[in-house]
Amino acid sequence: MNDIIGHPLAEDSEAERGRGRRRIEILVADDDDAIRRLLEHNLRMAGYAPVLAADGREAIARGSAELSCALVDLKMPYADGLAVLRHLKEQHPDLPVIMISAIGQVREAVQAVKQGAFEFIAKPFNLDELLVAVRAALQLNRALRENRELRESVSMPGGVETLVGKSRQAEALRDSIRRLGERELSVVLTGESGVGKGLVARLIHRASKRANKAFVTTSCPALPSELLETEMFGHERGAFTGAIQRRIGRFEMAQGGTLFLDEISDLPLPLQAKLLNVLQDRQFQRVGGSEMLPTNIRLIAATNADLEDKVQRREFRSDLWYRINVVPLHIPPLRERAEDVPLLAEQILARQALLAAGQPLILTPGAQEALVRYAWPGNVRQLQNVLERAAAFCSGNEIRPDDLPEEVTRVRNPPPIDPNKTGTPNVAGWTLEEVKILCLLQTLALCKNNKAETARRLGVAEKTVYNMLSSIEDPGANPRAAAA
Predict the structure, then answer these.
(1) Helix (H) or strand (E) holding 28
(2) What is residue 477's predicted lDDT score, i.e. its pLDDT?
(3) Cβ neighbour number for residue 361 with a 10 Å cutoff
(4) Pick the residue with more confidence: 446 or 338?
(5) Is the predicted pLDDT of residue 378 greater than 90, yes or no?
(6) pLDDT tens, 221-234?
(7) Which residues pair with 262 in a beta bridge?
């Protein structure tokens, strides 16, 4: 502890806070209260926003797309650091994770690096060295996000970006895109993170009469609330300290075209009121200005939150919700259209080859089967990251099962269970995890493999059912041969 006490992690902290940057959230997961509070204090001094977790279970719960870096202790109750690392890399592949280990945990630390950790730091550590690692991790996170945005902006050969898939859901989505392109209606896209809401928004724009005008994106959680207003509406010179010249906002950039508000559920309430007025009056003012400027945009919004629930809890204005929710369009998760996975994988590998000016890699039958079988909690974005990682480490021009992450290849199909079997199995001596798995598998069989109905009967979220299935290494033999 001597090396970590009294070393403020605060180089140019005031400058960091004063630049009006997006709030940089860093997860701090350590069961040692003293270390956790010390890191919290010094990260705040450096201008960051720590998100604290006192054990592995809490660390997993606090994982989110808003995090830019994670500091995770290797030894914690409920779930160790390796389990937290696997979860974070599965759910948020762009998130750099720095592992904190004791001196005697070198083997575990090396294993963590093999599983995707950005770096590991041994206790007792020097805060200056930790700050260097944090800044390097943040640079990587920023580069990965920018690279993903670049990839998403690159069209496939032929110059046309399309919604790939042959499933019933993909066909219905393409039909909805075509119909919405013909109408000047506001659209709210819903769906889990990573399903491709941004792509669908661009395709609606390209199918509309506004296709030759600008398509402008604003990510509501990516900027602090004090900057969002100027980003959306622009500002006049001298409107505030540092406003040395006029700047146009996203509404002016999108004039005649489409404005896409990503994660609109994170829009602060004061800006919700202003957005409502602009949509109703079709005019706005720049910050610090007096001139009313007309606007002609089509609004497409997206969210992975339950906006109706936010309206009920007064976290989202009901009048704005009714104004924008003219046409709701739900984008299904990838697990509900597994037959589309091979085509999506082919497109992703072709795009990688286009960016690298090389030949596309191909999937072996075993690798393709593993991709189809996996539940993909991170959806298309996770699939893309998995294939990029596999492409970087595979030999030759093929991606084999061994090139894929362990969490993808370990999944097995649930064994057949007779839902009419009578009698209660004797679970004495079983672990609680085995009992949970048995309950899941038997309920799944009772519901004829309907995941949504299974989740309803178990009283859990549907995503929990898929995550539990993904964690079962061999349901045929564990738990106890499905209580056979």
Answers:
(1) strand 25-29
(2) 38
(3) 22
(4) 338
(5) no
(6) 766 666 778 888 88
(7) 219
DSSP state of 236: -
- Give the C-alpha separation, 43 to 39, whole Å: 6
Whether 70 has a pLDDT exceeding 90, the answer reads: yes
Residues in a beta bridge with 280: none
Residue 6's identity, in one-letter code, is: G
Q: Taking the mean position of all CA atoms in its chain, how far away is CA 124? A: 33
What type of residue sits at position 318?
Answer: S
Q: In whole angstroms, what is the distance from residue 124 CA to residue 116 CA?
A: 23
Which of 87, 75, 85 shows the shortest CA–CA distance to 119? 85
User: Which of 391, 392, 388, 403 has its CA nearest to residue 148?
Assistant: 388
* Phi then psi dihedrals of residue 395, to 5 deg: -110, 145
Joined together, the tokens standing for residue 438 give: 């048995």
Cβ 65 vs Cβ 193: under 8 Å: yes
**Tokens 């539940």 belong to residue:** 375
Average pLDDT on 195-217 reads 91
Please report the pLDDT score of residue 104 as a whole number. Answer: 64
Joined tokens for residue 304:
């992975």
In the chain, % helix, strand, coil (3-state, to 5) comes to 50, 15, 40
| Cα 355 from Cα 332, distance rounded (Å) | 28
Q: How many H-runs (helices) and E-runs (strands) does the chain carry?
A: 21, 14
Say yes or no to pLDDT of 377 above 90: no
The domains located in the chain, with CATH, are 2-143 (3.40.50.2300), 168-330 (3.40.50.300), 337-409 (1.10.8.60), 432-483 (1.10.10)
pLDDT of residue 301: 95
List Cβ neighbours of 254 (8 Å cut-off, separation of 6 or more). Answer: 213, 214, 215, 216, 297
Buried b (16+ CB within 10 A) or exposed e, 54-66: bbbebbbebbebb
Paired strand residues for 70: 27, 97
pLDDT for residue 397: 85
Check pLDDT > 80 for residue 463: no
Bridge pairing between strands 293-294 and 283-284: antiparallel
Six token digits for residue 470: 């993904």
Q: Which residue did the predictor score with more confidence, 176 or 410?
A: 176
Residue 319 three-state SS: helix
Structure tokens at 229: 């207003």
d(CA 444, CA 462) in angstroms, rounded, equals 12
The phi and psi torsions of 253 (rounded to 5 degrees) equal: -60, -35
Alpha helices in 23-167 (DSSP H): 33-45, 56-61, 81-91, 106-114, 127-153
* DSSP, res 100: E
Which DSSP symbol is given to 122? E
In the predicted model, what is the mean pLDDT of the chain?
80
What is each CA distance from 4 to 60, 160, 189, in whole angstroms? 26, 54, 47
